[in-house]
Structure formats: structure tokens, C-alpha cells
Fold Oligopeptide transport system permease protein OppC.
Amino acid sequence: MFHVEHSRPMTAVHRPRATSLAALARRRLLRNRPALAALVTLIVVALACLAGPFLTGHAPGRIYPDLVRMKPGLAAHPQPDAVRPAIDRLAFRMRLAVEDFAVKDGTVRLTLTSPKPINERSLSYLPRSDLFGPPKILERSGDGRRLVVETRIQRFYFLLGTDVVGRDLFTRCLVAGRISLLIGLTATLVALIVGVSYGAVSGLIGGAVDALMMRLVDILYALPFVFFVIVLLVFFRAGLWLVLVAIAAVEWLDMARIVRTQTLSLKGRDFVRAAQALGLTTPAILVRHIVPNTIGPIVVAATLLVPRVILLESFLSFLGLGVQEPATSWGVLIAEGSRALESAPWMLGAPAGFLVVSLVALNVLGDGLADALDPRLSEPG
């Protein structure tokens, strides 16, 4: 009698799966708490700049002439001690005298007198001041020289105060952030496209072409940036697009050198030689092999380029060579705040705070991406 041994099913051999560079970089970035905090900060700042101006309750260009240089705080304006002076100023404009004045539950009750019959249209000064609502006439004397009026006190909140003409500074900082971030991202994108293409072509072709292209870069490096902007201002009007063109025309130089150095180290690799032996054209080698293998340094350089562009735009706007009214940016607001530093220091502190937080977050995120995309760092077990 034979003993039949049942065969056991063969179990598959588990082999460790290779981890792609993107997955490895993502894992490293998620473990880097400062970089994650910087990324969250940037997302919050970007969302605040995009949606915040619609939620503050103040239009960016709205002027409150009776609320000039209000200090930052959570208190409602006008404050109780400012209601009577505001009424006196408005009565002076209306050429009326305030005989009686009382405030109760956010409502002002006034008794106005005049040597002549009072024209009711002059009461439009009350709602026009933005401090009070439409007036309601409660009593009127027979000769028309005495009116009892009731009006509602408007309530406004200025978290970061107001500027020298009475505009809400918080709203203006958020709107200015749109322009500064737009300039930073757009100029960086242009620098990436031009710099990566220029550096990759120069490094891959090599020889006399490479030498000629790099000498052109050296010549552009030698031109003073501010002088270049002033020359552009001779032919074009200062504004947002001029800033974008000026910054993008200069900031691609560093990117071109970085990509050229990476290309020189890659062109001798076996996969590039194999592609050349197979007859691939130079554009195909650049797109399929050179540029994808330089993504790491490019991403890191781009992340660090954005804060430099924003700072450069702020410098130009501070000198009056950048963004012009009615548009605004953090640099424009900082320039305005520096002129009112003694009387209203919050005008400088508010936009400078937004700028510093954004620049620090971008630099910390750039350092985190540099560590995450560095292939020489070993993955902790």
C-alpha cells in the first residue's frame, strides 16, 4: 500500500518592491515636520489672499474719511468717545448746531438747530460719512429751524487698523498678497521654462555652442538689475507686467547654470549614450532623459526662487519702480508704511509680517524638498 503525499501549494516568494524616487521623496517630506508646517502655512496664506477680501466686509479701495489711522484691535469703530466729535464735524459741514445729543443701544438721537429753515437734504452728510445710517426725522418745529433726528451708528472692525486715508489694512494686505504671489509664481515659471531649456541645450550640445551660450549668460550677469529696470522704464510705463518681464528676464540665469551642470554630469551616462546610439534626436533625448533626471534640483531651485522673486518685487515697489496704484503689493504697502512709521507703525508691521511669514515658509519648504529629493540620503528603517 502506497502512501500518497499531498503536494502543498507553492507559496509565492515575497520580494521587496522597489520604491520610486517620487514615493521616497513624499515619504521623507511627510516626516519633515517643519517642511509640512511651512506647506500648510503657504496654503493658508494663499487661500486667505484669494478668498479673504470677500469675507472682511471691506472693499480694498473703500475709504473711511472719519476712521483714519485706526489702531489694530478687536473693538468696533467708531468707539463711544469718538461719536460726539464725529457728530460735531458733520454738523459743522451741514452748518447746523447740535442742541441735544444722546446715545442709546447703538442709536444717536440729535436735536439740530439753525438760524434759517433746515434743508432736509443736508442730512445726507450723516450716511455719507459711513459712520451713521440713514437719518429718521422724529420732530420738526413749525418754522423748520429745529429738527429731532435719529440715526443708527454703523459698526466697523479693523483687525490690522487703517492706513493714512482710512482704508482697511487687513483687506489691502490680502489683496496685495495676490499680486506678490502672482509675480513670484509667474516669474518663477518663466524662469523655469527658459532656464531649463537653455541650460539643457547648452550642456548636451557642448563644444563651441556651449561656450558661446555661457558667455551670453555671463554678459547678462554683468548688467546691474536696477539699471536694467530703469532702461525698461524709459520705454514702457511702470506696472505689473513690466515687473514680471524685468524679473523673468534675469532670474532664469541661475536656473540655466544649474541645469547645465546637471546635464554635463548626465550626458556621459550609459542611458544617454544608448539613446544617441539608437538615433534619437537631441530634442527627444532632452525631453525623455535629460530633463526628467534633473527634476530634483529643478524643483528645489524653483522653491527657493519664488521667495527671491517676491523679495525682488518688494524691493522694486519700495523704490517706486514696481506695481503702481490702484494695484498694490506687499512691497508697495511696506513703502507706504515706512513713510508713516512714527504715527502709524502698524502700517509697516502688517504687510511686513505677511511678507516675512511667506518668505520663511517658502525657504523652509525648499530646504525640506532638497532633503526629500536628495538620492544620497538613506531611508530610515
User: Anything to note?
Assistant: Residues 1-8, 10-18 have pLDDT under 50 and may be disordered. Residues 100 and 170 are 37 Å apart (CA to CA). The beta strands are 76-77, 97-104, 107-113, 136-140, 146-152, 156-157. The domain at 37-55+161-372 is CATH 1.10.3720.10 (MetI-like fold).
